[in-house]
## 1
Amino acid sequence: MSLVAERAPYAGRSSVRQWWNNGNALPYLLLLPSAVVIGVVILIPFFEALQYSFTNSSLLEVGKFVGLDNYTKLLSSKDFWNAFRFSVIFALANVIGCYILGLGLALLMNMEMPFRGFFRVALLLPWIIPSVVSIVSWRWMVADHNAVFNQIIQLFGGRPIFFLSNNDWAQFIVVLIKIWRSFPFMMLSLLAALQGIDRSLYEAAALDGATKWKAFWHVTLPQIRDVSIVLCLLMTIWSVNDFDTPFLLTQGGPANSTENFVLLAYKYTFARNDLGTGAAISFVTLIILMVFIVIMLRRQREA
Amino acid sequence: MKSKMAVRRRTTLAFALLAATSVLGISGSASAETVKLQFWDMIWGQPEYIKAAQKIVQDFNKEHPEIQVEYRSIPWSNWYQTFVTAVSSGSAPDISTGAGYQAVQLYKMGAIRPLDGMIEKMKADGDLNDFAPGTVETLRFDNHYVSLPWGLDIRLWYYRPSLLKAAGVEPPKTWEEFRAAAKKLTADGKYGVVASGDTGGSHYVLSSMLNNGGGMFDADRKLTLSSNDRNVEALEWLSGIVADGSMHPASPGYSADDRRATFFRGEAAFSLDSPNIYKQAGAVSDDIAVLPPMQGPHGDTGTIFWVNNIMMYKQTKNPEAAETFVRWWSQNELPLWTEGHTGQIPARQSFLKDAVAGDDRYKYIVDNYIPIGKTTATAYKGIFPALSEVEGEGVLQTLTQQIFQGVPVKDALPQAESRIQEILNK
Amino acid sequence: MSLNSNTLAARWRLFAIMVVIVLVINFPIIVIVANSFQTTEQIMLNRSIIPQHFSFTNYEFLWGQTSFFRFLFNSVIVSGGSMICGVSAASMAGYALSRFKGPVLSIYSQALFVIQMFPIILALIPLFIVFRALELVNSPIPVIIIYTVVHLPFATWMAKAFFDTIPRELEEAAQVDGCSKFQAFLRIVLPLSGPGMAAVSIFSFLFSYNEFFVGSVFLRDESSMTVPIGMQMFMQQFATDWGSLMAAATLAVIPTFILFLMVQKYITYGAVAGGVKG
């Protein structure tokens, strides 16, 4: 090394080698495997799809360039704003519901109790089950006037509710099932985060005479804050991009009340064979999500 | 170092060769002696249907050792996506059956190889005369026979005689009587009519418009969904049944399977369904009867029907072998009825006798409903590609769900009209 | 500390509360399992969740009618493969994002969010054409690669978040002792990130085990189908046979349930390891 450093003409090469030897290349090497697969699976199709959105392509042939036609047509269509509205309701309700349920259960599961391991697994079940299967079961429980849900309602003297026939109830049940399917993931991640908290922080808080509630507020929450933000943002993305729940339960019905962006894009792409508009919907979704997430991350950084 | 380079060069070469062979379409099977064909068949009945179909294919393979057909059954959900991704990626089958307007739609996309030559031959040797009148011609588009009919599907009203008897109601003959009967039959958690909000539900809307002498199009293929008064009148009739409270409230959210189960359980007295459905009803099968075609307020009769068909794909490398199979299949598919119990009505009249043997209800449907069947394109003569999207895209389902939810016809109809117009304009 | 100072009675009270919660939350699953032991006629007739007569007819039917164990085998290959690929790639990338700074890294990190938002429907048709040219349709390889990528952004973020909770001082100390940066990552950081890695692995495995849409495009042959796709096919063919559907659903859950009972020990272990002070 010292020998190389003495020879001025080779300074350029030596600094590269030095840079390498100091382990500065490590982060890039670590990124390499991910970058390669992402490039192949996402990046290339991404640009191809972006191209489609400016054409009147069908699934079978690349169409003519039509400029922003697909986008302007969308923004003036009723279906688009209907899907926008439901996507927002769906994402918002799911993130809030999931986080409250997930955190509550994570806190419980973080306490000492008999058979804790069993409970932990048992609470993950809704998430373990393939959506194809669990949604069939849910459908069976809510579809009818004498289905399980309505039997319970009638047990308490209520009148049967036709969950899948009424727009509001259908939206409610789709959100409920989505929360049910995704809270275990929230719980698991938060639990791991809770267990990563340095216990001496609690000991210090206890020495200061903090109550349990205060310890939760001043130690637990700040400690899991970053994980929580990431989780909520991801849950937002996943909700907006969720296909299975509305598709398998209601197919977007009744009267399009549970149709979100993905279902609309799917409908245009596959049922109307209008790849151009389908792609445009997906890019509009992408842009809306990006704007939202950039704003959220900005605010988080400022806070 | 040197040897490593050599290895790398050889692998690159191998990849290049692999790419070249796939580009040129050279494959081992093409040069081999037996021809392999892919046949994709929709699930046209209960599980026994698939078994019956597989057995016919086996028989064909035995009789034709030089052609080996591989059978694959295709579920109805996402069928459109299945076919379109297959066609667009170059992995379409050689032959398939499909939904009523699939062939003409795929033809427009350039994916179908018309069966003109085969049909000319069938015309020459008289085989074509076996088909129900008009069915072969229905599938003629752009001066080509895009596919060959095999089954007719139709929707008709069923009722539960025991429920009608208990309420002292005669089977209705007109719409007016139907509405009154449905109202009378609604009591104690039971309803007059049960429907569904899926594609099967949209057949209620189509069927009643056709029953009333209406139709979505005029003779020039112009959309007349809301401008034809007969259509509006038909929707008002359905809407009235809902307003009376005679429609099962779960209908907008039901799937066809839910609807059928409800009807079989005796929780509703009337249901619109396909032929043969009583064969799935188990113990109550005998308590399901076919309602004779009803008259609308102007004395019209009619209902929706489709000519289902078998088609050949442009991507096939062995069109002759594929034609051989299509023709053989068409002549030997009788077990689809006798063993597979499909709900279709055979397009070949020579099959009718065996297909309806010992089943009076089936015979009644063939004799009384088939003659009044009309296509989705009514009053336009013939079919056209956009029909597939009109039926499958979801517009009609949304309209149906809204009607069954009790949304006034005048509010629901304009939206549906403009959506369908958008599809047609494309 | 307060969490450990619960009395025995309090722990059992908590246990009782948890039993109720678990029963309520898992009610739809209990319905599936209970119904799987009734024939379809019984299910439709009495609509009661508690089986009146135990019957194994549905399971016998499944045994004869479906290649369930073939589906299961395929699922394990696909999920295991994408879990290994995903977790390796994500832990490396996550570590890079956690410990190093620079324009490339921050661009990469933002790109991950965009990728996560990207609707996979759009990529499917181009991808299908590519993999078909490589004669990989009906092979688990394209599905493993796509699954890996689809959950990679999230897995990377998770990994990064957990690496962030591990104090840097540990690696610095190891480097003073003569470890390279990479060795410090392998020997010091990875063993400490047990809970995080367990969560990432579970996430990764489950995503792949349950995924339906991508699989249904690539796995067309019955011998290559995973559990959800085979199940969907079965449900289409036997749409009204609730008993068999429920039995199939039950079978689909058992393997992961068993796997989870095993894995959860590692999560507990990770919790202990996380408590070690740096």
## 2
Amino acid sequence: MTEAASPLVEVSDLTVHFAGRGNVLGRLLGKGPVVHAVNGISFAIGRQEVLGLVGESGSGKTTTGRVLARLVPPTGGKVRLDGEDWLGLSGPALRRRRRNVQMIFQNPFASLDPKWTVERIVAEPLKTHERMGAPELRRRVASLLEGVGLDPRLMTRYPHQFSGGQRQRIGLARAMALNPQLLIADEPVSALDVSIQAQILNLLAELKASHRLSMLFISHDLAVVRHVSDRVAVMYLGTLVEIAETKTLYRSPRHPYTQALLSAIPDPTRRKSRKAIALKGEIPSPLNPPSGCVFHPRCPLAQARCAQETPKLRPLADGQWAACHLA
Amino acid sequence: MSATSPASVESLDPPVAAGRRFVSELVRNPKGLTGFVLIFGVVFIAIFAPMLAGHDPTRQVLEARFLPPVFAEDGTWGHILGGDNLGRDILARVLYGSRTSILVALLVVFNAMVVGSILGAIAGYFGGLLDAVIMRIADFQLSFPFILVAILMLAIVGPGFWTMVFALSVALWVRFARLVRGETLKIRELEYIQAAKSIGVGHVAIIFSHVIPNVLPTIIVIATFDVAEVVIAEAAISFLGLGTQPPTPSWGMMISEGRNYLFENYWMALGPGIAIMTTSIAINLFGDFLRDTYDPRQERL
């Protein structure tokens, strides 16, 4: 484990509910439908650790990342960043501290303002947080671009003149400009070609090492997550179902959902494929999550108890935690 | 593959490229070109009216009363479009009248554009109560016809050139507000806005540096159409006697004055009528071109 004495990020019992699309009266009275995007999850990210967060769409992994980036207000729970109450900050105090947590986004075509030059884009965080003259600013931008493998001479160009991979590098340069402690990478390579994915992943690894970064790496791609993460957390319908070191999790998943998920990965080294565990049905609506264990309607091992009692995330061996009565 | 090679061979600076694109698109579009040339003509006339008119637009000459235009019987080249009921040269009045029309249209559209865009962006960006308040005011106002709102405002503040500008601006801001709000709702979810927020950029800076610049092409297209509408509205209001006051020439007022003599001396209304029609068609043609070129999604509102 790379975790030092105190983790950089401690999330406890984080809950995010969104008001659904009810009628106006219902919303005014606070009785409209509620989307349970994230339902009381707890985890920690160690210093210089990469925590992978996997789950299908609608599992709440992106929302979790956005709460950590303070883009989405949480409904409940606590997040401590470097020992400080991160969710308690607001106004100018929050804005000043935002430099410690930066984010890169899934869609490299939407994450850069099309009307801005690359220079202006990468300079935005520097201008926001630091006072410096134009020549100094330009030097910093140039070195940041070099740091992500882009020719600084291209800084006068506009985003549309770059490919997806190059744009992701620009986004990364912008995120690295303030030397953040935590980088939240929300599906950073999902929109890229496989060959480009590897380049960006390697770049992330380099930056992580050289800048002593911690990272929350959100992805639905199990292979990518395995490649970059020190530990992996699995989310299902707003709940954290399992968290373990990458090796442990991939070798011996304990939660039935994780088992099903991992069994779906094709293994080219085996002649006869393992039998994939086929899950019944669809992921239920977060408007009305199932009682007890949220996974029980689809779980191949479900028992009567699972529909009533919500399983707590509990420690098993080797720092592996799972939220299942049967694990 | 080298990450440092640019994806596109295009190396022109965008302002230059945008200018060239405008010209090359314009010459390939006969409608747009016609509109552009006519607008240019009207603006030219407005600026150089004193040199082109040949007559003082307010000077009354007794012999020129109801003088027919040159193409009618008894017409003279001295007064090409004839004379009005007070013996003023109609051509001179039409030429000078372009100044009123253009000035009012530009002032009104500019005011409405600035105020409407900012309010719309605020409503769309912040949402919630602010959005509800701004947009309900806009909806309320939109439930009345544009010209009625303008006349209502004029009835409150009294007739006159500047009050007309004010009234028309008030009547027009809602369109920009609605449009910009809609676009802002779309843009605010985009990741570059999220990125700016996560960097710690303030809301005002985000609105002015990210939101507005990205809505601007749409705003400009709408503004063009509104210029044409304001030209007509100015004429209508002046026709009703609530706008430009005599003796300042205005196309709408000229038509109003000619109305009483329409059967015997139709030409009093002919000159300003053609001027209004030409100007609004020209602006609409050019607006169509702008929309097709820069904002293909936007259907006529």
## 3
Amino acid sequence: MNPGTSVFSRPGLKNYSTTQNVHLFLRMLSDKIKIAAFVSLVLAFAAYTFYLYTHLPVGQQKTSDPVIRGKTAWQKYNCSACHQIYGLGGFLGPDLTNVYSLRGKDYIRAFMITGTTIMPQFHLSEQEMNDVTAFLYGVDSSGNADPRSIKKYYDGTIEQ
Amino acid sequence: MTEQSNNKLRMVSRSFLLTGMLLLAAGMVFGLTGALQYLVPGLFKSYLSFEKIRPLHVSSMVFWILFAASGGVLSYLQQHTGRPVYSNLLLDIQFKLFVLSIILILYQYFAGVFGGREYWEFHPILAIPFTTGWVLFGINFFKTLGSLKKQPVYVWMWTTGIIFFLFTFAESYLWLIPYFRNNIVNDMTIQWKSYGSMVGAWNMLIYGSSLFLLEKISGNKKYSNSPMSFALYFTGLFNLMFNWGHHIYTLPTHGFIKNVSYLVSMTELLILGRIIWQWKSSVTTAARHFHHVSYRFMVAADAWIFLTLLLAIVMSVPAINVYTHGTHITVAHTMGATIGINSFLLLAIAFDQLEDKTKQVFINMKWLNRNYWIANISLFVFWISLIIAGILRSRWQMSGVRIPFSSMMEQLRPLFMLFFVSGAVLMVSLLLILGQTIKNHFMRQL
């Protein structure tokens, strides 16, 4: 074979030198590796997503209607703009994850009726107040959001 | 490329950027109003209380990012391929659907109608025009691109950003299905899975465009085809897909989600290590191109990437996250990322796109320089005040005997004051830069 003649039989490569063809081949290979890496990650992500959708953390339990309605009211008045549940939400008001067991339903109702200096009076109906209280009871029953109760280990992991 | 198509794309791309800049201005005004409500409790309570101001701020800022990022991508894609964009009609419709969406979304907040989801929320029905616009954006992108073969890393980043944003946005509406909605822990797990990855998706669009711009300025196209750039891209993609669990370490959800997220997040140390390793050469390159307005904002974003990434890695360790979660340290991270990284990079892209062949965006560079430094210094003070407020709140959260929430907030008041003042200075400096950019643009049109 003459120097500079292609060792590859692909028609698109034959006009280049051997060195150029090797580079082109590596680039084609590199494209395949990139696509393989991308597809592998997407498949892993799809499998992870599918597993999570089909194995939800708490599974399917019968949730009472007032809790579901209370959640709708919580969203309707955008309560999470100021309040947190499990530390997720706004910072203007306190975290309400365990307010039901810590303060009781009368305390919750009192705030909803009067509002505060910062919190507007939302003029909730009696039904809405009962539902939001039921929702906060449901949230409270789901776990403990107090960070002091979480065990911390030297390897950086935690245990609830 | 036909001149007519080129002009049309340039015009629409500029419309995306200018609309985005107006939203950035509005978002800052809403944000500062919200900060003022921390200092003056009950301010505007009867008609513009915090539950309205917060989504107004968040949605304005998110739409600034989405407008500017999508406009920037299509324009740079056309420059990259050398072909006209597939359909100017689709581009027009996308723009109009985005504008319609944001007008309706902002209006519904003023009217007291909410989606009520934490972070980015609006009524689900308003997701329809926006999603349609995004699908049209995707069609235009893929039809213009053709093939992924032999493409540089920024094309991969744009592709990933467009696809994953659509997926995660759709996923964030799974709560409409009772199967996902009925239990708060299930709902929050899936919600933060979607939101965590969604931020990674729009970051892909922005980082891809800034990389394209970087190569355009430097004239060196080696990096975006190098194995290193792809290694970092795949590290970013890996994190986009699997590190979202760090948002919900304290939620009583699956333990494996937390461990996966912890492990995956630590791969970001590779990116941090590279930034440190390349520091000296980055500084040298920065000095060479610093006269370029866009490059100047990219250098600032580089510094913010370092600070924000450092904070993100620390917060991704579950045992540390227990202290930082639910405190203003989280807000500091978000502000560093959306202002210091996303907004500065998008401004760099905007200056590049708004510049004409004959005239620069800014005529008075001394004036720009002053506002540039004021913006960066005030952002740093703003960021630090949030971190200190977060540390104090964390101390309160972890203390054996807690004082009441209102007393703790009262103790943080000096920091809220600093946060407000530095935020106001930041806003004014950026508004001046935005105002000058928009004014100069329209003056040139006359």
